[in-house]
Amino acid sequence: MRSDVMVDVVSAVPRPPTPPEEYPGLEEVPGTWLYQVHDLTLKTLRAREHAVKNTLPHDPRTWSRDDVHRWLHHVSEAHQLPRVFPERFLMNGKALCLMTLDMFVQRVPLGGKLLYKDFQLRLCNAMYA
């Protein structure tokens, strides 16, 4: 190989991150700020879940159409799903019990599995808890 054609491989390797002392003001950011934001988000989600638990009947088999729509809205917000159209679920809790996973996925392609799993968990909690 000719030495005048060789590429400097060392310069192609990315530099390691710059030490924090080169960024003025970085030391002012507390090291646990990310965890604080995460805890705040968890507290908010738990508070919303608690609010929904208090408004929805414990047993999904007794849900009305309005309860089903409230549950759909809550689950889609809590898990940041695309908008779930309540018109696709014009039914009460007993009718939801008869739905299969494929029926949920057919009505809500992005999030149907999650809705099915959440509903089944609530149903099992009502039946066996």
Task: Identify the notable features of this structure and list them briefly.
about 130 residues, DNA polymerase, domain 1, single chain, 5 helices, mainly alpha
Q: What percent of residues are in strands?
A: under 5%
Tally of DSSP β-strands: 0
**From the structure provided, what is the oligomeric state, counting identical versus distinct chains?**
single chain
- Spatial gap, N to C terminus: 75 Å
Q: What is the mean predicted local confidence, pLDDT?
A: 78
Summarize the structure.
The chain has helices spanning 33-55, 65-78, 93-97, 101-107, 112-128. It has 129 residues and is mostly helical. The chain has a domain at 60-129: DNA polymerase, domain 1 (Orthogonal Bundle).
How would you describe this structure to a colleague?
The protein has a domain at 60-129: DNA polymerase, domain 1, CATH 1.10.150.50. The mean pLDDT is 78. Helices cover 51% and strands 0% of the residues. The protein has helices spanning 33-55, 65-78, 93-97, 101-107, 112-128. The chain is an all-alpha fold and 129 residues long.
Any chance you could write out the topology, listing elements then pairs?
Blueprint lengths: L32 H23 L9 H14 L14 H5 L3 H7 L4 H17 L1
